[in-house]
Amino acid sequence: MARSCASRAGCPTTWSWSWRSPGHHAAERFHEFGVVNSLAEPGAAVDVALELAGRLAKNGPLALVASKQILQEQFDWSSAEMWDKQGAISGPVFASEDSKEGASAFKEKRDPVWKGR
Description:
Blueprint: H1 12-20, H2 26-32, H3 45-57, H4 61-73, H5 79-94, H6 97-107
Helix pairs in contact: 4-5
């Protein structure tokens, strides 16, 4: 049986509930607990989001696609099948040219040149 995203932490519904929670400095407390990864001053949320998107965009495209797929599909997985399903999605990424490029770029202290294969 599929579980609703709304019932899981980190889903958009959960996030919006978190921001409406009562209490002074709620965002700062959520940040302390790791529920929120970035804080923004009032009116600066879009700038902070774009900065985060820029950091994510520097990652390998195959890894980003696989990560997104895992995040989207995980809600229907049982605990018993979680590792196998995640491995089926992420395994090809680790065997890709981009994976080798990422390791080489790290070793050579340079930015990677992703090819998406």
